[in-house]
Design brief:
Pfam families: LppC. This is Penicillin-binding protein activator. Keywords: Cell outer membrane, Cell shape, Coiled coil, Lipoprotein, Membrane, Palmitate, Peptidoglycan synthesis, Signal. The chain is of the alpha/beta class. It has a domain of 137 residues: Serine Threonine Protein Phosphatase 5, Tetratricopeptide repeat (Alpha Horseshoe), CATH 1.25.40. The chain has 27 helices and 15 strands. The strands form three sheets. Strands 7-6-8-9-10-14-15 form a seven-stranded mixed sheet, sandwiched between helices. The longest helix has 20 residues. The chain is globular, with a radius of gyration of 28 Å. It starts with 8 loop residues before the first helix and ends with a helix.
């Protein structure tokens, strides 16, 4: 499935535990009548043993919260599971079920959580509590990677909520899931026996996701609106539904100044960016759209950006794209008053004239891989990165993203490409220690024993950054050392850019995230470049995509900045803008199947069927 940001179970659990101090359940009156010298969990349980069902259950719930707060989740669960909630007041029963569900979700047991939150059991709750119940059930479904079931729960919750802000939150979450969930699952859900609200959401998602460009998207929304004029998604649209407005503010430019090095070591990548820009302009001309003129400004050897800015002013440039050099980008950001709108091709530090920024840093891929692992329910990961500066940067970003979302790195390997991968992977997975324990036991017992070598058990996934040759050797070593059951998530560094089933068969099962340019059917601009003999499917070819998106996105930069939730579908990803004016790229993710990215296999199958 695609990257879906699930709710943080640890945050929910903490909230539930804190809520215990101000629960809607009134404190048991009997507490005031007995001695308060022992308020420990064990003391509360002793008191509960001699009380009627309802006050006893209240004390057991209080004890379970105390135990969960001190890290004794399993004991807390035992107490909660032993409490019969069938004869308790609905609100108290719900409080017990909520804590039970949250603790089971923390233990990666969503099926048990759903059982605790059975809707039929709690049909007498208030509408607000029913909405909360749906939110928690949705979270459990997401932990099982069932997007459509989660969407159905959230739709119910949104209909039960009267607060417009809460409704908006539910609508935003529903739409995010429908935009990012597996398309096949949403298609299947759309032909099920749905009610009015469900069918409207599913059809809206399918119509939007079938739209190839901004104009088609706008037409799809218009068509859907006529069919579903009373639908909640129309009366309270989710953030990002409308994307960009064709008749909204656009940045117009007749002359675009392109700041790139025309000679030296960066001349070749700069040329690819320029060719991508020219290809997109040619597509615009073929479609009868006005296309600006490119004015090349050579930044080779430049150390002072003010000279380039003055040159741009003299040439009456309406927009600047570039530079690539980070130092020059930061000089632009530091300008007291930047007269010409600028789209830089590297990140910019804070400054009075910070430009818009679009770039291809590995940071996006590292975060996407970590988020994908988290979205699939994995929190304890092993990191595998090369023993190099760029590998350390990627590892740092992955770890930061994991820890921010409640995950953790339980082990790491900085692999040396020149060393034996078998030994390095064995050290990471601790299989060598397992073999040593076997030998020690045999020597101690002096007899033949049955012993199964095993890997470490504290990890549930692997995050990897590796170049193709290394990845093709590392994955078989992981399988050999009993880690074939651990899902592997990787950055695009392991993919050469084009299918090579013979060489990449050893990468089967690895999920990685990359540009739509490489993982989706070729766009018109890509076909144009390929027809001109350019090698578009390669790591270097990604620079063509950067140039194309620089032209595609520039008219919409004001809207992307001013309208949170708006986005544009580009060759480098789904583009949104953060508060630092940096374009964030939501990448495509896929899994190696039979030595090829599954997304390309699906596209080929669809083309054949059509």
């Amino acid at each position: 499935m695609t990257n879906i940001h699930r709710l943080s179970f640890s945050l929910l659990l903490a909230t539930a535990l804190l809520a215990g101090c101000a629960s809607q359940v009134p404190p048991p009156q009997v507490v005031d009548k007995v001695a308060t010298d022992d308020q420990s969990a064990d003391g509360l349980l002793r008191k509960a043993a001699s009380l009627p069902a309802t006050p006893a259950a209240e004390l057991r719930l209080q004890a379970a919260r105390m135990l969960a707060q001190t890290g004794e989740q399993q004991r807390a669960l035992q107490i909660l599971n032993a409490t019969d909630i069938s004869r308790l007041p609905p609100t108290l029963a719900f409080e017990i079920a909520k804590l039970t569900a949250l603790l089971t979700l923390e233990s990666d047991n969503p099926a048990a959580a759903l059982q605790s939150l059975d809707r039929q059991r709690f049909n007498s709750l208030s509408a607000l509590q029913q909405a909360e119940l749906g939110q928690m059930r949705a979270d459990a479904w997401l932990q099982q990677n069932n997007v459509t079931a989660a969407v159905r729960e959230l739709i119910v919750s949104s209909l039960l909520t009267l607060d417009p802000q809460e409704q908006q939150r539910y609508h935003d979450q529903i739409w995010r899931l429908l935009q990012q969930g597996p398309l096949a699952d949403i298609k299947a859900a759309s032909v099920a026996n749905n009610n009015y609200q469900e069918q409207g959401w599913f059809e809206l998602a399918l119509m939007i996701r079938a739209s190839s460009d901004l104009a088609a998207r706008q037409q799809a929304i218009d068509n859907w609106s006529r069919l579903w004029e009373s639908h909640p998604a129309l009366t309270l649209p989710p953030a990002g539904l409308l994307g960009l407005e064709l008749d909204g503010e656009q940045l117009m430019a007749q002359r675009i100044g392109v700041i790139l090095p025309l000679s030296g070591e960066l001349a070749r990548p700069a040329s690819a960016i320029r060719q991508g820009m020219e290809a997109q302009l040619e597509i615009m001309r073929r479609e009868g759209k006005p296309s600006p003129e490119l004015i090349m400004l050579d930044s080779t050897g430049m150390t002072d950006v003010s000279l380039l800015l003055e040159q741009a002013r003299q040439l009456n440039v309406d927009l600047l794209v570039g530079p690539l050099n980070p130092e020059l980008v930061n000089q632009i950001a530091a300008q007291p008053d930047l007269e010409i709108p600028t789209l830089a091709l590297n990140p910019a530090e804070p400054g009075p004239s910070r430009p818009w920024q679009l770039e291809l840093s590995s940071e996006h891929e590292a975060r996407m891989a970590a988020r994908r692992a988290l979205a699939d329910g994995h929190k304890r990961v092993l990191l595998i990165t090369p023993a190099a500066e760029w590998g350390d940067r990627v590892a740092s970003v992955m770890q930061e993203e994991l820890e921010t979302q409640g995950g953790q790195v339980v082990g790491a390997l900085r692999y040396q490409a020149t060393d034996n991968y078998n030994d390095q992977v064995a050290e990471l997975l601790l299989t060598r220690q397992s073999a040593e324990r076997e030998q020690q036991l045999r020597e101690l017992l002096r007899q033949k024993i049955e012993f199964q070598e095993r890997r470490r058990q504290d990890a549930d996934a692997i995050l990897m950054t590796a170049l193709p040759d290394a990845a093709r050797l590392i994955k078989p070593m992981l399988d050999y050392h009993f880690a074939a059951d651990l899902p592997v998530y990787a950055t695009s560094h392991l993919y050469v850019g084009y299918p090579d089933a013979t060489r990449d068969v050893d990468l089967n099962g690895i999920t990685f995230c990359d540009l739509p340019w490489l993982l989706q059917p070729a766009s018109e601009a890509q076909r144009l470049l390929s027809g001109n003999g350019e090698e578009t499917l390669s790591r270097f070819g990604r620079l063509f995509a950067l140039g194309i998106d620089a032209i595609k996105v520039y008219p919409w930069l004001p809207q992307l900045e001013q309208r949170p939730g708006s986005f544009m579908l580009g060759e480098t990803g789904q583009l949104t803008m953060d508060q630092n004016k940096r374009l964030q790229r939501e990448l495509s993710c896929t899994t190696f199947t039979d030595g090829e990215p599954a997304s390309l296999i699906s596209a080929q199958t669809a083309t054949t069927e059509n």
